[in-house]
Amino acid sequence: MRVVSREPAASMEAAAVCEVSVASDRPVTVLFAGEMAQAAGVDILVDAAAIVVADSTEVRFLFVGDGPLKTEMMARTNSAGFAPRCRFLGHLDSDAFAAVLNDSDILVVPGRVAQDHSVARSALAAGRWVLTTHQASIDGVEHGRNGLVTYDNPGSLVWGLRDLI
């Protein structure tokens, strides 16, 4: 049995209060939701995911959205051998997205430029950790309290994912 904090804590004391037990066979679910495009940084996340899945059998990645890089990202996960740990869900209606967000542990916003704040706000409101980049300029993410803020490169995202997982 492993312990995973399902909700970001305001302090270390609060972290002990909000921990819940999760069966060890339940992987940590990392969610990307946005346009599958270079500006959104989906390729940065896929590069980081390739490293993180080698570290841990307890992580899976969900990708919600469509865009010009979707086919390439699917091919990259396949050729790197970790496609079984990734799901590309395409565009989802609001109810389906809410269900996916509810089943996720971490939202990643790896943008190279400023991104829409709405998905991150929904994740924070649902008590999910948000891993974002400085470049994405997401309001409301407080480094170390309800998420982490990194740089727009795979190594920085690997650090953030490892820390949150």
TrEMBL record:
The keyword Transferase applies. Keywords: Glycosyltransferase, Transferase. Pfam families: Glyco_trans_1_4 (PF13692). The keyword Transferase applies. One of its GO terms (molecular function) is glycosyltransferase activity. This is Glycosyltransferase. It comes from Defluviicoccus vanus.
